Amino acid sequence: MSSLKEQLSSLPQKPGVYLFKDNRGQIIYVGKAKLLRKRVASYFTKKDEIKTSILLSRLADIDYITTGSEMDALILEDELIKKYKPRYNVSLRDDKSYPLIKLTIKEEWPRLLMVRKKENDGALYFGRYRGGMVREVLRLVKKLFPIRWCKEFPLRRREQPCLYYHIGSCSGPCVGKIGQESYRQLLKGVIALLKGNMDEAEAKLREEMARAAQEQDFEKAAYLRDRIQLLQKMMEGKNLKKAPAPRQLFAIEALKQALGLKDAPMRIEAFDISNIQASNIVGAMVAFYGGVPLKKDYRKFKVRSVKGKPDDVAAIYEVVKRRYSGALASELPLPDLIMIDGGRGQLNSARRALQVSGLASLPVVGLAKREEELFMTDHRLPLKLPRAAEELKLLQRVRDEAHRFAIGFHRQRRSRQLFGA
Question: How deeply is 8 buried, as exposed, middle or buried, from its count of CB atoms within 10 A (0-12, 13-18, 19+)?
Fold first, then answer.
């Protein structure tokens, strides 16, 4: 057994498949492992079990194949057992295979099915999965993406929707509650999820949520928001943005229309300057995504170019230029909209800084406090939105947060100066 123990010590601590061979070189047992060395070593500590003792009495050599994951090892184990039919493999010696998930993409209203065999029928296949796992995957996918649960083909029209529709797990194509385009968008998210592209799956849910919010279907948008939050909990190790509320998405879409923007301003960055008699002049930038503060992207600036007297126009130029050129330009993503706390002068100053930074195409607006007027570079007169407009309230929240952040930084700097900290 000394040679076997030497082989055992050389096994890697990686997932893979191990092959036990007899003295004729024939494979007598195939197994899979999350950690090869640990799993094979366990056989030598269980010799009091009859089946293990018999297996070890015929064992003369150990071979192995490493894999990328435990799931890959599981599938390879299945294939090797079918190929070599080892005498001591009992549970997997028949011709049953691990099941696949089938998406009937060619149908009018595609379904998700569990199948044993892949056919040349134009459908999409995913897996293989263990029997219990495939059912868990199917439940999870349908919980995240409300595609139909029924297996009938073709789908029959009904007068009343089923229970799955009433509990929010089906979008109700059988009763005309969803159109072909929206259903296909859900399927894109399903495909991304089954391929392991979690970010893309989330993006598809966000698109549908934004569409529902634009149509003021806030109940549907809230449901999709909850699905996004569920998906985020599954995405371990990722620092994802909080899912925006439906009304915030509606405000974002309304702001896009009001300002004539090409893209919805999901990410907004706002700048403010704080100073008292030109002492400790500071700038601050806040970032919002989907109407939600993204505090990890907030930034503070000590203004260096302004001395002697307050000059918010010059300070804005410096701060905006520093944000969109140099290290910060590559550290943070670009916004869909830039907002400056101020009027025409501050806006023009920010525009010059963007031009110097090579980002003249970025949309930028100024929001003046007194009359709550919006200044835009391509409009001679300011835009006045209704005081009750959701898009104006969104901009006010962003502006007020930038002001709060700038004031806080200024007070911090002044305290340090007063107390010599």
Answer: middle
